[in-house]
Design brief:
Elements lengths: L7 E4 L15 H13 L4 E5 L5 H13 L4 E7 L2 H10 L6 E8 L2 H8 L3 H16 L5 E6 L6 H14 L3 E6 L6 H14 L7 E6 L6 H10 L4 E4 L13 H10 L15 H12 L20 H9 L27 H10 L7 H17 L5 H9 L10 E9 L7 E8 L2 E8 L3 H13 L4 E9 L8 E9 L2 E9 L2 H17 L12
Parallel strand pairs: 1-2, 1-8, 2-3, 3-4, 4-5, 5-6, 6-7, 7-8
Antiparallel strand pairs: 9-10, 10-11, 12-13, 13-14
């Protein structure tokens, strides 16, 4: 079953990536990302944790109905309700997988599960067998395998394979391992487990020590043939192994890796932008592969070398991961067809002509404010639409802000709340603070602002500012985004967007699913 020439890419952006506080995605947003992953030819898409909430169940079910070319996976603890719920969510998948797990480290078994090793093995075997009632494609994970006893891992994995598991996942759940150590663990497991040839060995590494990608690659060099990863390295705490790093390392260093993926790597940058815009987690400029500076050269000696021969300072081509020098620039004279065509190239397709027309009107408004509209502007513009009209309880009608040297800034804000117009005036330490206080005076949500971040979408003084805010209330954490050439208006849009999300029924992040 383990094809030594093929490395399976298992993307868990929609599940583990969503466990980043504030990265919760709607069903429609999950479908958009899943379609982008399918276009990239990702082998397995872990769509969510169906037992976590009705919303998560519906999202997994919707992705399973929509995606035809990738295997759709649902996560389930080794519990009857979890497994049955995952099986139900995946019923209409063209290719479905149930991923069941139980903790195996001494600290987890003793302190969290309060189970003996024998009980854990028995529960794991039972869970795999129950999952096989729904699909022949069953993955078993030993949570916190990175801190588990190697003899116990051999025992539980052997029995899980005998019970019908076709993929065995070895997670470094808390990012504790070092590459040499983790690679040796994978090699030892595959050598010592008698039936290891009947399953694909997989790894799922967290980035607490900044080693997730390195540990994943060490595992691949020692026989693992599936890597679980996320776009942009998104994930809880410090994140997961970044898909783009793992894939391009294997592709670039074919002299060291005896396998390759089947991904269309030219889709990486577009997928990275989509995930960043939906989650509100921007990509740092110096991020490998997908950062704005990843293929930029400022030092004169580097520029001179690249001009003479690209290979002097570039180990891969920018075009191979989706960076393009042929970027169409739109402006106020651009027509509707050019607008539609460019959005389709960016994998943005509207469900109706009405949605397209509304987006085109927003584009024209933006084009009146700035001379050139770039790809990143378009992505922000589409994302700035936020919620569909029926879900948008709060709307920003107008705002007037006064900021003057030596005077306390003040803001007057007018909102509609469930169709009723309300206004408030407030002062603050700055214009944004005043605007936020005026909005809170109207809504009285009692929420706490935990993050305020501003990024320039493109260059120039007429660039749009993209604002991300994170608000928290009673353990519920949501992000909001807004974009505008006026940074104060962008801030108000982002805050209103977050409060709209807060007022919706949100699921709690399933942190118990800490694989």
């Amino acid at each position: 079953m383990n094809n030594p020439d093929r490395l399976i890419i298992f993307d868990t952006t929609l599940r583990d990536g969503e466990q980043s506080p504030g990265a919760s995605m709607t069903r429609d947003e999950k479908i958009r990302i899943a379609k982008a992953l399918e276009k990239m030819r990702v082998d397995v898409i872990e769509a969510g944790f169906p037992i976590a909430s009705p919303g998560d169940f519906e999202a997994v079910q919707a992705v399973a109905r929509t995606i035809r070319d990738s295997t759709i996976c649902g996560l389930a603890r080794a519990l009857e309700g979890d497994i049955d719920r995952a099986g139900e969510a995946l019923k209409e998948a063209n290719s479905g997988r149930i991923h069941t797990f139980i903790a195996t480290s001494p600290i987890h078994m003793e302190q969290k599960l309060r189970m003996t090793p024998d009980q854990v093995v028995e529960q794991a075997v039972w869970a795999v067998k129950r999952a096989r009632n729904y699909t022949d494609d069953v993955e078993f994970s030993a949570e916190d395998a990175g801190r588990s006893d190697i003899d116990f891992l051999c025992r539980i994995f052997e029995q899980a394979i005998d019970a019908g598991a076709t993929t065995i996942n070895v997670p470094d759940t808390v990012g504790y391992n070092l590459p040499d150590q983790f690679g040796a663990t994978i090699r030892t497991l595959m050598e010592r487990i008698p039936n290891a040839d009947k399953a694909v060995f997989s790894v799922h590494c967290h980035n607490d020590l900044g080693l997730a990608s390195a540990n994943s690659l060490a595992a691949v060099r020692n026989g693992a043939r599936q890597v679980e990863c996320t776009i942009n390295g998104l994930g809880e705490r410090a994140g997961n192994a970044a898909l783009e790093e793992v894939v391009m390392a294997v592709r670039t260093r074919r002299d060291l890796f005896e396998c390759d993926t089947g991904l269309d790597t030219t889709q990486i940058v577009n997928c990275s932008r989509l995930v960043a815009s939906i989650t509100g987690f921007p990509v740092q400029p110096n991020k490998a592969i997908v950062g704005a500076n990843a293929f930029a050269h400022e030092a004169g000696i580097h520029q001179d070398g690249v001009l003479k021969s690209r290979e002097t300072y570039e180990i891969m081509r920018a075009e191979d991961v989706g960076w393009s020098h042929n970027r169409m620039v739109l402006g106020k004279h651009s027509g509707r067809n050019a607008f539609r065509a460019r959005l389709e190239e960016l994998d943005i397709v509207f469900d109706s002509e009405e949605e397209l027309n509304a987006a085109f009107r927003r584009f024209k408004d933006l084009a009146d404010k700035k001379h050139e509209v770039f790809d990143d502007d378009l992505l922000a513009l589409v994302n700035d639409a936020g919620f569909s009209a029926e879900n948008e309880r709060i709307k920003l009608v107008s705002m007037k802000v006064c900021s003057e040297t030596g005077e306390t800034p003040d803001a007057t804000v007018v909102l509609t709340v469930d169709g009723e117009e309300r206004s408030a005036h407030a002062q603050g330490g700055g214009p944004v603070d005043a605007a936020f206080k005026a909005i809170e005076a109207i809504l009285q949500t009692g929420s706490v602002l935990e993050l305020y971040s501003v990024n320039s979408i493109t260059s120039g003084t007429d660039a749009q500012g993209e604002v991300t805010v994170r608000v928290q209330k009673e353990g519920k954490i949501v992000n909001g985004q807004g974009a505008d050439t006026d940074i104060v208006i962008a801030s108000a849009k982002a805050y209103v967007n977050a409060l709209n999300r807060l007022l919706q029924e949100q699921r709690a992040h399933p942190q118990q699913g800490n694989v």
